[in-house]
Specification:
Length: 165
């Protein structure tokens, strides 16, 4: 098989468009801003506000961890079952505690709705952002491997020509 035929069969590196990446980052930024505004203007006691901020941050970090766990174990299990239980339980616990804290707060229902919707928007945008970042990383790795393979093939071709000369 010739070198040019091998290059034709090389997999293509699929990347997200610049518009998609911008939309993902803007969406995450808007969600985080809406949450920050809602939490900073949250009526009630300081302890309630602190609980909700911790809940939102807990949900944010566990959503990234869950996204990574699911993606890492997509093709074959690389993590232990116990770690999977910890990740899923942490995410469920974070969501449940934050939801419970929001539900039990003695504030206007409209304000609760605002906080709830912005919280769910944040979680949704986290999963999208995590996937976009992971896709970009995997494309970078594949591209580096393909460039390394092409360089090795070119080196092999040069060595072959030197031997034949």
């Amino acid at each position: 098989m010739s070198t040019s035929a091998r290059h034709l069969q090389a997999p293509t590196v699929r990347r997200d468009t610049r518009a998609w990446r911008a939309q993902v980052w803007i969406s995450f930024g808007v969600a985080a801003t809406l949450c920050a505004i809602g939490l900073s203007w949250l009526p009630g006691q300081d302890l309630d506000r602190a609980f909700m901020v911790m809940g939102y941050v807990f949900c944010l970090s566990t959503a990234f961890a869950l996204s990574k766990y699911v993606r890492d174990n997509e093709q074959r299990r690389i993590d232990t079952p116990l770690w999977g239980s910890v990740v899923w339980a942490g995410f469920g616990f974070a969501m449940a505690l934050t939801g419970w804290g929001l539900w039990r707060m003695d504030i206007n229902p409209t304000y609760k709705a605002y906080l709830g919707v912005s919280w769910l928007f944040l979680i949704s945008s986290v999963f999208t952002l995590a996937k976009t970042l992971r896709d970009a990383h995997e494309a970078d790795v594949l591209e580096a491997r393909l460039q390394g393979q092409a360089l090795r093939e070119d080196d092999d071709t040069v060595l072959q020509h030197e031997r034949n000369a």
